[in-house]
Amino acid sequence: MTIRKASYLTLILLALLSAVSGYFVAQLRFNYDFNDFYPAGDPDLDYYQQYSARFGNDNDYVLLGLEAAPGHTVFEPGFLTRVDSLTRFIQGRPHVVHVTSPTNATNPVVEGFGVFNVPYLHPAEPARRAADSALVYRTPGLVGNLIARDARAVTILFQTSPNITKPPGDSLLSAVRTELARQGFAPDTYHLAGKLVAQSIFVDRLQWELVVFMSLSVLLVTGLLWLTFRTWWGVVLPLVVVLGAILWGLGLMSACGVSIDLMTALLPIMLFVVGMSDTIHIITRYNTELGYGTAKKQALLITLKESGFGSGLSALTTSIGFFTLMTSSIRPIYNFGLFTGIAVLLTFALSFTLLPAMLMLLRKPELRIPRAEGHSWDGVLGRMFRVVLARRRLVVGLSAMILIGSVASASRIRINSALLDDLSKNDPVKLDFGFFEKNFAGVRPFELALQPAVGRTIYDLQVLRETEEIEGYLQKTYGLNFVASPVTLIKSVRKALNGGLLAEYRLPGSEAELAQLVRRVKLFRNKPEFRALVLPDASAGRLTGRMPDVGSIRADALNVDLRRFLRQHTDPQVLQTRLTGSANLIDKNNENLTLNMITGMSIDIVMVTLIVLFLFRSLRMTVVVLIPNLVPILVVAGVMGLAGVSMKVSTSIIFTIAFGIAVDDTIHFISKLKLTLLQEPSLFKAVRKTYLMAGKAVVVTSLILVGGFSTLIFSSFDGTFYVGLLIGLTLLFGVVAELTLLPILILYFYKHKPKEIRQPVPVLRG
């Protein structure tokens, strides 16, 4: 079979595989499941899943905040009438389980064998406005929860079906917004918050940003490829190869049932810029051989022979950089690392099948600059090489100073995260969440499981008293602005049995009185707030609340103090407690971030070390290779510390990815050096020749990588912004280290023992 026939068969086979991949890509769906960011396989997650199955999820709700007109209060009849109408509308929507609103909040009163629910507010009776507002401010649980302290806003809280997906969630939110407009509420007078809102906004933005960033990356890379090669095929062929790899990678992801989320949305952009490396190295070397007058077929064979080994090693190290993310217990990061790592290997496969096939079928290109006129890149790189060696002490000294300063600055990095970490502070969604932080109880949920000791129930008087003491601590010291527990139920029933008087809102003073109250609890057993706080058999209870989103550092400190309080003030023979909830699980991710990052970096370093040892059989050379790639990582860590950027779920992946990508050029450099040393006994001449051969590809690939990642700084997600900015900076510092520190370190540390040159030798030209 001729090479041309083999090329045609290769293209047909790859086209068929691409068609299959395209079918699966068409099935891809976008997803933002809050639960995916919990630490998978963690005992606390297993416990929370059992807990939520009994009491419900703590984040299946939407908060709707409504502001009164300027100069008015929420107690005016016209405003309350609209709030009541809106409450009834929401209650009738599909997927709405229960609605809590100032206009449907009631003060239950038991008379005889009946229960009468007396509303706190009477919109249709303006004469009762003063009495109603006074009662509201005296009643626990209303002000700061349903009504703002300054009486300028109210909250409607509606509980939704568990884990509602985006389409029905969007329909619900759209219906609510339409009704708000019909009721005369302007967009700047209402605020929405909750998991459902975040899910809707995040998925829509993911879709938009994926299209925008891919378009920007394609335009930017196309421009850089044209400036580099000045030929249409030098632009089109790399794009075809990398876009094909993206299609295969996304198709594989879809075939495995994985959706696009906040992390995997980075895969196409990441692969687009990273995957260019092999194609650029191949085309650069191919152009060089053609420039020497080599025949097309021979030039291609030489290129594949010389580039294959280095490209294979670099693809391996880059993919390992992504595969190490699989050490994370967070499912989106795990999936991102797995499928991006596989896609990098697919890019390598296409670079050495699809690209050679296309080059073989194309006519031999006419080069713009013949060899006789010289190559400008050789001149620039030659001068740079001389300057670097002439000022090597300055280069090393300056690098050492920057490194010391970076390490000192990096020590200031803290691991901290919040519920809406990926949104900038001025984002409309975050501002809406901030509205509830400022005017109401907050948006961060709190959950404490209550388990009575053996032989007791949740309605045992000692259990209730200890629960009440915990409530007091949480409100006065911990920072909860709203608390509900079985104590709330018993106090409410006691108040209802005593004419609804606020003075009777307290725990009973004796077991006998409590027994009477417990018997009457069955009158209220069907109320949603009762079912959500106590199991039907009273074998377990729930203490729930809301507070401002204080961040994981503050939350960890508060939880340490809370656990100490529980050990000192709670008798395990009476009541046992366990901190749980979605916010607690998100905070727990931080405990794993540092370990995952260290594990990932360690695996990367070990793999690079093994590769260098395999190539050079030299520990000194291993150190030489690691230094120029670790220095940029430490410098960027210093930048993070200096800028006050916290380590969180999104930024924790930066260092392992950046190291895996940055070492790519180093692998290409040293693999070419290894081949050069086979025909050049002088280490100095071998390093210089390698510098000239690899320098252009190193600069071009680094520019493309930095440019591609820089498009991410326009993201509305802070996590994506920092991934683009910090990885871009790492690669920028990396290419500087590659072209300055690396040749100096090789010449100083590597002890090359010249070997007898064997025949035949590879065809290598400088």
UniProtKB/TrEMBL annotation:
<feature type="transmembrane region" description="Helical">
    <location>
        <begin position="721"/>
        <end position="750"/>
    </location>
</feature>
<feature type="transmembrane region" description="Helical">
    <location>
        <begin position="210"/>
        <end position="229"/>
    </location>
</feature>
<feature type="domain" description="SSD">
    <location>
        <begin position="239"/>
        <end position="361"/>
    </location>
</feature>
<dbReference type="GO" id="GO:0022857">
    <property type="term" value="F:transmembrane transporter activity"/>
</dbReference>
<dbReference type="InterPro" id="IPR050545">
    <property type="entry name" value="Mycobact_MmpL"/>
</dbReference>
<keyword id="KW-1003">Cell membrane</keyword>
<feature type="transmembrane region" description="Helical">
    <location>
        <begin position="623"/>
        <end position="643"/>
    </location>
</feature>
<dbReference type="InterPro" id="IPR000731">
    <property type="entry name" value="SSD"/>
</dbReference>
<dbReference type="InterPro" id="IPR004869">
    <property type="entry name" value="MMPL_dom"/>
</dbReference>
<feature type="transmembrane region" description="Helical">
    <location>
        <begin position="593"/>
        <end position="616"/>
    </location>
</feature>
<keyword id="KW-0812">Transmembrane</keyword>
<dbReference type="GO" id="GO:0005886">
    <property type="term" value="C:plasma membrane"/>
</dbReference>
<dbReference type="Pfam" id="PF03176">
    <property type="entry name" value="MMPL"/>
</dbReference>
<feature type="transmembrane region" description="Helical">
    <location>
        <begin position="308"/>
        <end position="330"/>
    </location>
</feature>
<feature type="transmembrane region" description="Helical">
    <location>
        <begin position="336"/>
        <end position="362"/>
    </location>
</feature>
<feature type="transmembrane region" description="Helical">
    <location>
        <begin position="236"/>
        <end position="260"/>
    </location>
</feature>
<feature type="transmembrane region" description="Helical">
    <location>
        <begin position="691"/>
        <end position="715"/>
    </location>
</feature>
<feature type="transmembrane region" description="Helical">
    <location>
        <begin position="266"/>
        <end position="287"/>
    </location>
</feature>
<feature type="transmembrane region" description="Helical">
    <location>
        <begin position="394"/>
        <end position="413"/>
    </location>
</feature>
<feature type="transmembrane region" description="Helical">
    <location>
        <begin position="649"/>
        <end position="670"/>
    </location>
</feature>
<keyword id="KW-1133">Transmembrane helix</keyword>
<dbReference type="InterPro" id="IPR001036">
    <property type="entry name" value="Acrflvin-R"/>
</dbReference>
<keyword id="KW-0472">Membrane</keyword>
<protein>
    <recommendedName>
        <fullName>SSD domain-containing protein</fullName>
    </recommendedName>
</protein>
